[in-house]
Amino acid sequence: MTDNLPRLDHVVLWVRDPLAAADFYENIVGLAPVRLDAFAAGEEPFPSVRVDDGTLLDLMPLTMVKRMTMLPGAADSAGHPVNHICLALPRTAFDALHTRLTEHAVPVSDVSHGSFGARGEATRSLYFRDPDGNVVEIRHYD
């Protein structure tokens, strides 16, 4: 059955090296790569990583900026990172990712409590940057 509720489908993150970005998101953040082999073989223009069954992060190479012609002026905003993306995780996944970030010397913010999001107030959240400087927030709700 098709679910016709509005949902976030994907977010485009501009990256210098999509393979390195995919490695970070797979091995540090824990997101599964999508179309990575096809991208590496030159068969797809960019790879993605899967957030959940219906949401991807597209790892768009900065070399694609010139091809952003879907709307007049679209290329003017291409290549600029969003302020941040936020991934809501179960408590155990939050703790495990926090540990992996620390083990891989990825700088993280202080842990905050009670920040508002899509599901109300989060129990804990923190921020870090991916290798391209995109800011990622992780949080969990209890």
Automatic annotation (TrEMBL):
Residues 7-141 form the VOC domain. It holds the Pfam family Glyoxalase. InterPro entries: Glyas_Bleomycin-R_OHBP_Dase, Glyas_Fos-R_dOase_dom, GlyoxalaseI/FosfomycinResist, VOC_core. This is VOC family protein. It comes from Streptomyces galilaeus. The lineage of its organism: Bacteria, Bacillati, Actinomycetota, Actinomycetes, Kitasatosporales.
